Amino acid sequence: MSDFEPIELPIAPDTPEAFGFAPCEGGVCAAAGVSAAGLHAGFRRDPNRRDMALVVADQTCVAAGTFTTNRFCAAPVIVSHEHVADGRARAVILNSGNANAATGEPGLATARRTADLVAATLGCEPADVLVASTGVIGQELSFGPFETGVPTAAEALAATPEAAHDAACAVMTTDTVPKEASFVGKLPASDGSAYEVHVGGFVKGSGMIQPNMATMLCVMSTDAPLTSEAAHEALLYAVKQTFNKVTVDSDTSTNDTAVLLATGKAAPAGESVGVDSAAFPAISAAIKAVCGELARKIAADGEGSTKLVTVNVLGAASDADADTVARAIANSPLVKTAIFGHDANWGRVAAAAGKCGVPFDQRAVDIDFMGVPVCRAGLTVPMDEDDMLRRFEAPEIDITVDLHSGDAHTRVWTCDLTHDYVTINGDYRT
To answer: What is the DSSP string of 172-191?
Structure first.
């Protein structure tokens, strides 16, 4: 056994527990004033597979969104970006099976017609409807399933955990499991009292995962009374610290969308949470917590994956350096295949870190696998191979690297690289 102490990880100051928030049931419907539905509309051939989701606030409310940076951006992204610009929305309509990307003006027309249909069904303005799609790129999206599916979904809307789950299932593509999270806690009111609020949501994402964001559609909601500015700032911060720290295969999607609806339904009359409010750090931490749980579930469900892999990089000279090194390790096929093979090959980690262009002294670098020192000062540390093999049986694998070059640190989530990844992506359209 090693005489060296494990690398000590920094503690994040904005954990939900620090503000009294805890996990709860309900997903995107955990927040008061939000209902959802998920059903089979006909975008997919399998009648038993849900392929359309609808999330609706009781009335038009504060909203924020962030979208893909891919220049080959999908029609729904263009339309939703326009609609959420005023910081307001009522509904989000999502379909799986077809991305409505690289479809030109017909694709844009379909996205706008979809918003029009949802608006007419709910009795709101088209600009209050956000649209999102996921699936195959380059194929025209039929409007027909929306014509029958939207009225049916509107009738099926419910503010229940079951309805939230149905919506989460409806956006799955190569995902193997639906991904939901929700938290509950209390915010301080302006009169010195406190009131209970919820944050919840769902996400789809499994492959083509490389920030900014991932191949993901995410809808979140809260019943906290956020201002438009506060919702925007909280969402951007959360996405930067969570979804933007996920990588599976270094490909960025055309359709990435993350949306936050804030109904304010939990707050006393006249209460508002702005960026300078005493309540903002707490609700921001809760939003980040939901995104963090969803991000981890995306990484754990990487196409064909068997392991969730967390890469921690400490002691970097800057945040950018920490991020570059972490992503180089997380994206390395040699590192990912070593994890699949249960091989504690820290040399692959060192090589990935060393090739990425970030300056550091190899003679100072420490590396741990799952809290076990394997490299100190750039040199091998003896380890119990049998013990390490047992540790690799766990569903979650941690790699920690301390560069000893500064005080910056980051955390990135990825997964192992398996035979099934090639099979899944080789057969994607067939």
So the answer is: -SS-SS-EEEEEEEEEE-TT
Question: Alpha-carbon distance 31 to 183, whole Å?
Answer: 9
In tens, the pLDDT along 94-112 reads 999 999 999 999 999 999 9
Radius of gyration of the chain (CA): 22
The active-site residue out of 103, 114, 215, 418 is: 215
Pairing status of strand 308-316 against strand 396-402: parallel
Give residue 163's pLDDT: 98
End-to-end CA gap in the chain: 50
Across-strand partners of 130? 92
Angle between helix 346-355 and helix 319-331 axes, rounded to 10 deg: 130
What is the reported pTM? 0.88
CA quadruple 327, 65, 31, 150: dihedral sign: negative
Backbone φ and ψ for 88, nearest 5 degrees, come out as -135, 150
Cβ–Cβ < 8 Å for 328, 356: yes
Average pLDDT score over residue span 55-83: 93
Which residue type is seen at 24? C
Q: Where are the beta strands (DSSP E) in 146-234?
A: 179-188, 194-204, 217-222
Architecture of domain 16-300: 4-Layer Sandwich (3.60)
Which pLDDT score is estimated for 207? 42
Domain-wise residue ranges, the chain: 16-300, 308-426
215 catalytic residue (yes or no)? yes
CA distances from 192 to 85, 187, 271 (A): 34, 10, 12
pLDDT in tens, 285-337: 999 999 999 988 988 776 667 888 999 999 999 999 999 999 999 999 999 99
* Total residue count of the chain as it appears in this document: 430
**Tokens of residue 98, six digits:** 């077809």
Summarised one tens digit per residue, pLDDT across range 323-338 is 999 999 999 999 999 9
CATH topology of domain 308-426: Ubiquitin-like (UB roll) (3.10.20)
- Contacts of range 191-195, beta carbons closer than 8 Å, 24 or more positions apart: 191/268, 193/268, 195/266, 195/267, 195/268, 195/271
